[in-house]
Amino acid sequence: MTEHDDSCDDVVGREPCPSCVENGGDNSGDNLARYADGHAHCFACGHHENGDSEGSVAGKGSSEKAPRPSFEPIPYTVRPIRSRRISERTCQFFSYGIGEDFNGDVIHVADVRTDNGSLVAQKIRTKDKDFWTNGSLKEKPLIGMHLWSGGKRLIITEGEIDMLSYGELTNCKYPVVSLPNGSKSAKKAIVANMKWLQRFEEVILMFDMDDAGEAAVSDVLPTFRPGHAKVASLPKKDVNDCLKADMGDAVINAVFRAEVRRPSQIVTIQDIYEKCLIEPEMGLSFPWPSATEATLGIRRGEIHIVGAAPKIGKTEHQHQLIKHMTEVHGEKPGVMSLEENPVKTTKKVAGKYMNRQFTKPKAVAGWTTEELVQGLEMIDGKIEFYSSEGVRDYEEILNTVRYWAASGMWFFILDPLTALVAEHDSSTANDILNDFMSKAASMAMELNITFFMYSHVNPAKTGTPHDQGGEVLSSQFTGSRAMEKWAHYGWGISRNRNEEDEIKRNTAKVRLLFDREFGEFCEYYAFYNHETNDWSEVPAPGDDHGFDNEEDIEL
Question: What range does the domain containing 125 cover?
Fold first, then answer.
């Protein structure tokens, strides 16, 4: 026999198994359990018959469904359980005895009554420590509850033996009950009997000291009003183990030392006091000094959103950042470029190291194969890529990030966010981006990791277009509400692609659009040098380009 879910434990009788009889088995007695909903199961051969809600009868040697028998209590004799050190007096008090099942096997029988004393079922324990129920537990009564009308304190144990053991230790003077089906039935049984439980000033949960018992405690506690339930800790696995080890005093002490356990989500100052004493430190530097000064550096657990129109500077921002994190800080970024394959990104980052443009033909950019090889060797092992191959499923992306984080990586780049929703209408896209950003923010906090995410921006409705140097607003980000809600920093890049002056045309303005951490404002300029393949901070370009002298920049 095996233990069943309490919703299926309403055994109302036993009968011969038609399959066992048909096949001449040795166990052709009353080994088919019939349940309250009409279904039946044989524990000898596995034959199964469906109930009222399960459709037609099915299973090996299926037969017509038999009528449901009424509940007939199994007779038992009350006597001491010496192996458990429980006296006959205690067994008599709790209506617990020894009987025989439908096959003549010796069993333990515990009467189950409602709070008004009505006998509704019997909890059966076999010699193999399996359990089944004769009768119905639909009302989910707590075993032993009919014995108590209320009082100062009630003890709840997982099983009947522990209930009897506590009764043995206290001469059956103090209220104690048992769950109807062990730890798995805890919450349902507690909720079903909460009105009755309110008759006691306090309830002590004395569940087993194992994972199942701890899980049941966590499941049950929120159902009580604050402070009504306490949790007892035992030196042995359960009450009976303590009784057998002559540790009865420890059980009694556990009752008086039981504690109100607050939900794990509640934190006091004392819980975090030592962490509060840790002094803030600067994060890792950006490649651009003004950004470092405004944000105090790149820290773990944060999300940066960088937005710009196409061909304005997002990619250069990204690649300059990758070079800086690998070369200056020795970090290994995880790069997820959804619109650029890893080969191209690798060659661009290698070009940053070698001051060459490896994505342009040799004849135009003037690089050599030896320089490319040297650049690749310089970044080998310093970057890992997510190769989407056209797949843009954000759950897969987040799973990849979780895998990377488990290996020790913490700095991640995703470009562009808009690729996740390119095939959706605006309403659906906003929902998807909000869901993604919510999960990414939770992951950043949980795993202590940092994201730099890049996004296209919607065209300006008024004023100067973005590709002519118009300012980027955070409200222009695709899915802007999700960006502003979940990201810690928002950056906008603007540049006039049509500017005749070459220096101005290749100089972008970067603005800090929002800062959830310190509320700072930051604005700086970054110039892309075609000769050195570098995108570095420079003074604001004026008519004289803003440089101290022409040696500050090489064209």
Answer: 74-278
* The domain boundary residue, chosen from 278, 301, 316: 278
The model's pLDDT over 104-148, given as tens digits with 9 standing for 90+, comes to 889 999 999 999 999 999 999 998 888 888 988 888 999 999 999
How many independent structural domains does the chain possess? 3
Write the pLDDT tens digit of every residue in 451-496: 999 998 988 888 898 888 899 998 888 777 888 899 999 999 999 9
User: Within a 10 A sphere around the Cβ of 182, how many other Cβ atoms?
Assistant: 21
Reported as a single tens digit per residue, the pLDDT across 286-320 is: 999 999 999 999 999 999 999 999 899 999 999 99
CB 15 within 8 A of CB 69: yes
Report the CATH number that the domain containing residue 164 is assigned in CATH. 3.40.1360.10
Cis bond before residue 80 (omega within 30° of 0): no
Residue pair 234/207 in contact by the 8 Å Cβ criterion: no
Sign of CA dihedral 309, 313, 316, 319: negative
Q: Are 234 and 250 in contact (CB under 8 A)?
A: yes
Side chain identity, residue 374: Q
pTM of the model: 0.62
Distance CA 459, CA 469 (A): 12
Residue 249: burial class (beta carbons within 10 Å; 0-12, 13-18, 19+): exposed
Amino acid at 360: K
Is the domain of 131 the same as that of 176?
yes
Return the residue matching tokens 């166990």: 27
Radius of gyration, CA atoms only, the chain: 36
In a domain, 554, yes or no: no
339 exposure class (CB count in 10 Å sphere: 0-12, 13-18, 19+): middle
| Same-domain pairing of 140 and 263 | yes
DSSP state of 86: B
Asked whether residue 540 is assigned to any structural domain, the reply reads yes
User: Strand locations in 299-426, DSSP E?
Assistant: 303-308, 334-337, 384-385, 411-415
Choose one of 70, 87, 117: the last residue of a domain.
70
